[in-house]
From TrEMBL:
It comes from Spirilliplanes yamanashiensis. Pfam families: GFO_IDH_MocA (PF01408), GFO_IDH_MocA_C3 (PF22725). This is Oxidoreductase. GO terms for molecular function: nucleotide binding; oxidoreductase activity. Signal peptide: none annotated.
């Protein structure tokens, strides 16, 4: 058996949806179930989580359920442990900045959910502080690791599209109001004061997807609204939904690519997946979801003629071709964790850092400004 190198990770917010399911169970515990992260020198990195939260009983229960022993409600004490190298944050967004600040001050490497802070100023300060402290840092950018987007990336890298013209993204589903059926997302997402809103939630995702797959975003025009103004919380109490639940955004990218992405928690799904991107280029087009990706090459593009007097005879969807997997796709959160852990342990290359996270927060902030002022807003380079 290969030598196991333990790496201590303070995991804060593990009682939450993302912290528990995606990061603890499907990433860190799944990595352990799979035998750890193999390093290039033949040893194996073995993550040792220290669970942190506000409720000791919940932490104890959670730890026991998964055969873990280390948990505490004292973040400072967890960060001070000499067997801990990484701080991970999946708390509600509004609590993140403070906690990451403490972890940086304690000299721990940082891995965090997005958005990295509630303001651009805060996000930039965190990135600067982490650089100044010489710690490594990473931000969850899970969508890049989804099979559908990896296939899209493969098409871009292979030059399938020719000159890319436009990207059309459609994201969303109906989030129940909470009165006659319980809401399927936490209520803080619908209150601005608690760090909620679809723009701060989703624009950071769109930012890294656009920047990584296509080109940097240079301008944003957004219309943002709250379609459902009253919702019911986890206890069944009515509350005013102060945060935006829908955003209609146009993003101008380098090279003239226009990306238009609708994000909504007030839309019913008539699509194959909860998010889909259509990319049109001079040589071909693709439609990618979370898992699937379909293409149409210019040579197989049909020539529809507009005639509303005749019934439709073309089966348009049937004219597209499925992009094969040609690879095995692991859980995206786990895949990114493994890359980050190797980055910490043996300096393996890593791209998605707190600066990238800050650019995502910037796009959200400028999107909200565009909506408020009813105008197009340019995206300046972030000063380090
Ligand atoms: N990468 C993604 O696709 C993705 C998806 C959803 C959410 N997120 C991000 O993950 C983070 C957590 O979201 P979630 O949906 O898991 O939320 P959640 O409400 O399910 O979990 C929040 C966690 O924060 C903790 N917490 C700490 N201080 C708190 C406070 N003052 N009030 C309430 N909770 C507090 C809770 O105990 C819980 O563990 C958010 O920053 C969100 O933006 C990312």
């Amino acid at each position: 058996m290969s030598t196991r190198i333990p790496i201590g990770i303070v995991m804060n917010g593990v009682t939450g949806r993302m912290g528990y399911r995606q990061h603890l169970v499907r990433s860190i515990l799944a990595i352990r179930d799979g035998g750890g992260v193999p390093l290039s020198d033949g040893t194996v990195l073995w993550p040792e989580p220290v669970l942190v939260g506000r409720n000791e009983a919940k932490l104890r229960d959670l730890a026991a359920r998964h055969g873990l022993t280390e948990f505490t409600t004292d973040l400072g004490a967890a960060l001070a442990r000499d067997d801990v190298q990484i701080y991970f944050d999946a708390q509600v967004t509004s609590e993140r900045e403070k906690a990451i600040g403490l972890a940086v001050a304690a000299g721990r490497h940082i891995y965090t959910e997005k958005p990295t802070a509630t303001t651009l100023h805060g996000a930039v300060e965190l990135a600067r502080a982490a650089d100044a402290a010489g710690v490594k840092h990473g931000v969850v950018q899970d969508k890049l690791f989804l099979p559908g987007l990896r296939k899209l990336q493969r098409l871009v890298d292979g030059g399938f599209f020719g000159r890319i013209l436009s990207v059309r993204g459609e994201f969303g589903y109906w989030v129940f109001e909470g009165d006659w059926q319980a809401a399927q997302r936490p209520s803080w997402n619908y209150r601005t004061a608690d760090g909620g809103g679809i723009v701060v939630d989703m624009f950071p995702h769109w930012h890294y997807v656009l920047e990584q797959l296509f080109a940097p975003v240079r301008a944003v025009t957004a219309h943002v609204t709250t379609h459902i103004p009253r919702r019911w919380d986890e206890r069944g109490a009515a509350y005013e939904a102060t945060a935006d639940d829908s955003a209609y955004g146009i993003f101008e990218l380098d090279g003239g690519v226009v990306a238009q992405i609708n994000s909504s928690w007030a839309v019913r799904v008539y699509r194959d997946e909860l998010v889909e991107f259509q990319v049109d280029g001079t040589e071909g087009s693709a439609v990618a979801g979370l898992r699937a990706c379909r293409v149409q090459h210019r040579a197989t593009t049909p020539k529809p003629v507009w005639n509303p007097d005749l019934p439709v005879t073309d089966a348009f969807r049937a004219q597209w071709q499925e992009v094969p997997d040609n690879d095995e796709y692991d859980n995206g959160f786990k895949a990114q964790w493994e890359i980050f852990l190797r980055h910490v342990a043996e300096d393996a290359p890593y791209t998605w850092d707190l600066w990238s996270g800050a650019r995502g927060v910037q796009l959200a902030e400028l999107g909200l400004q565009s909506a408020r002022e009813g105008r197009r807003v340019e995206v300046p380079e972030l000063g380090r």
